[in-house]
Predict the structure.
Amino acid sequence: MKNKRKSILTSITQFLLMAAILIPTVTLFIWIFTERWTWPDLVPQVFSKRALLEIAGRKKELLQIFRSSILISTVVAALSAVIGLMTARAMILYRFPGKQLMYFFTILPFMVPATVFAMGIQITFIKMRLNNRITGIIISHLVCSLPYAVRLIMDGTMAVGNRLEEQARVLGASPFQAFYKTSLPLLAPVILSAMSMSYIVSFSQYFLTLIIGGGNVKTFTILMVPYLQSGNRNIACIYSVLFLGVTLLVFGVFEWAAGHWMKHGGGEFYT
């Protein structure tokens, strides 16, 4: 009886969580074709293709902005994974002076408000001539993304440890072979999670991109947020659906790449 109640409670919780995700998504799709939908009517009063036609007319501009946004966010995700992996291994597997201070620096971006960070780093980048450049955008996004990557990979590294690497070294593997063939395949899911989180943080940055890019570097959020603020729901919903679709597509690519690598490139030291 107790198990049956637990199962019913679990099913209800899952249903509510799915509804909380699906209902807003369905509403987005409805608003794409809605010109007028006022309270308290449950059905839109006027449907229109105006927003779709307007977006279709800007197809070339959108494709260019998508390429720029995906490129910046993918570079940030890759750098976050590499730097986060090295930092996590140093923090978990080694002892060195200033280790606690280094750990504090890895979580410091969590504590600094985004507005304060953006204003401070803008002044620094102006002096370094990195403002209004893609390089400056990538570095600033990387600072915001790294804490998530480091924290996730630290947990994975703590769980995996280095015993398998030590055994591989005893069997004659080099340090790189021991890491690549034993620890890295086990850390692949956590690294993928870190890349995904870093990608989302970078892809959704608006204020930081606006301040550092100065309007010269256009990303998808720079294009989308003004429509969200202006109340133009048709265009805003189209951009939101595109944002969701591109994000899911990139996540699918990440998942495929990780699965392909684990199948053909990693984990065969003992085989």
